[in-house]
UniProtKB/TrEMBL annotation:
Source taxonomy: Bacteria, Pseudomonadati, Pseudomonadota, Betaproteobacteria, Neisseriales
Species: Neisseria sicca ATCC 29256
PANTHER family: RNA-SPLICING LIGASE RTCB HOMOLOG (PTHR11118)
Catalytic residues in the record: 294 (gmp-histidine intermediate)
E.C. number(s) listed in UniProt: 6.5.1.8
GO molecular function, one term: GTP binding
Catalytic activity: a 3'-end 3'-phospho-ribonucleotide-RNA + a 5'-end dephospho-ribonucleoside-RNA + GTP = a ribonucleotidyl-ribonucleotide-RNA + GMP + diphosphate
Keywords per UniProt: GTP-binding, Ligase, Manganese, Metal-binding, Nucleotide-binding, RNA repair
Keyword Metal-binding applies: yes
Protein name, as recorded: 3'-phosphate/5'-hydroxy nucleic acid ligase
GO BP terms, alphabetized: RNA processing; RNA repair
Pfam families the record matches: RtcB
């Protein structure tokens, strides 16, 4: 599928080892035919979503489509270096110390964790502030497995420490914003400069800020439970809209489950039973609309996972990975839906981007403890 293109200005980053389901390609082709759409690009983790594909970027002219961003505006990855020693690693003990972090934080708890007021944000009780969320969201302690380029690591990086990767977004806020928009305008694009466009962009910006703060609060409460300090090395959204210039043309760049390639170092995680990669995008990623994959990408639909796996694995057996890492997930449906087998190999995704000349490998990380939920029901 390498160098896949068609007259609707579609490009898919893939090589001979990349598996992409036909339905995902069909969704990408449908999106490419939207009015005002200039170019679309699929990443190697491309998979079918609810009407629109995930793992893709969309570049449009003078109009943009909030539905392409979806309901989790600002979803992204924050990468923290903890004060925990990798040499003293005891995953079960760390899981016990962490306990349950599913309950939303109160305003007082937020301020205690951050040592500053968060009252400028439009918090409400239904936003579940400081929580990870359901689906593919997670927080994961990792240890350094391989360093490829010491010279490209962040200045403060210490390979003897455990690292913390937090994948979450704007929680209920993004859902509320999209729902209001769809009720008012359906799936139509909005003309730039219009009142409707300005309203959406203002709400979108609040959701981005909230998502970043939410990841910060998740990391802070986890570090607090482990009685250690941490430093945020990077925080990058992968569901968002921005004005951009591609090949000399200015337009609107939508990313849905897609990592920006113009923000410096980024983390691209695999499933909870696979490696994660720290990579540096190359200077020219215009072929992929300045975008990279955001993870391994789903191989199976959620509804089929339990049927495919339950005769081979118990829920308990899926709470430990081939790496010996521990998975905290008390939701029996979610443990099957998020099984490593339901995802593509992260190495195949990374290889496709490397072969396309989009990335330099910096380091590879191995999971130690992955937190999904301590509750019994997912979202």
């Amino acid at each position: 599928m390498g160098n896949y293109q068609n007259p609707h200005h579609i490009h898919i980053i893939a090589d001979s080892e990349t598996w992409i389901e036909g339905n995902a390609v069909a969704q990408l082709e449908t999106t490419a035919k939207l009015p005002h759409m200039l170019r679309v690009a699929g990443m190697p983790d491309l998979h079918a979503g609810r009407g629109y594909p995930v793992g893709a970027a969309f570049f449009s002219d003078r109009h943009f489509y909030p539905a392409l961003i979806g309901n989790d505006i600002g979803c992204g990855m924050a990468f923290w270096q903890t004060g925990l020693s990798a040499a003293k690693l005891k995953p079960a003990k760390l899981a016990k110390q962490l306990g349950n972090i599913d309950t939303p934080l109160s305003q007082d708890e937020q301020e205690a964790l951050l040592e500053e007021s968060a009252s400028d944000y439009p918090f409400s009780d239904d936003l579940a502030v400081g929580t990870i969320g359901g689906g593919n969201h997670f927080a994961e302690l990792q240890t350094v497995e391989t360093v490829y380029r010491n010279d490209l690591l962040p200045a403060a990086f210490d390979s003897n420490r455990l690292q913390l990767l937090v994948h979450s977004g704007s929680r209920g806020l993004g859902q509320q914003i999209l729902q209001r928009h769809i009720e008012a305008y359906g799936h139509r694009g909005l003309a730039e400069g219009s009142e409707a466009a300005a309203d959406y962009l203002a709400e979108h910006q609040v959701a981005l800020e909230f998502a970043r703060l939410n990841r910060r609060l998740i990391a802070a409460r986890m570090l607090d439970r482990w009685r250690t300090e941490g430093e945020c090395l990077l925080d990058v959204h992968h569901n968002f809209l921005e004005q951009a210039e591609i090949a000399g043309q200015t337009g609107w760049l939508h990313r849905k489950g897609a990592t920006p390639a113009d923000k410096g170092l980024v983390m691209i995680p695999g499933s909870r039973g696979d490696y994660s990669y720290l990579v540096l995008p190359t200077q020219d990623c215009q072929i992929s609309l300045n975008t990279l994959a955001h993870g391994a990408g789903r191989k199976w639909q959620r509804g089929e996972c339990k049927g495919r796996l339950s005769h081979k694995y118990s829920a308990d057996s899926l709470r430990q990975t081939a790496f010996g890492s521990v998975v905290v997930c008390q939701d029996k449906a979610l443990i099957f839906e998020e099984a490593p087998q339901a995802y593509k190999s992260i190495d195949s995704v990374i290889s496709a981007m490397k072969n396309a000349g989009l990335i330099e490998l910096v380091a590879r990380f191995k999971p130690v403890l992955t937190y999904k939920t301590s509750g019994g029901c997912g979202e």
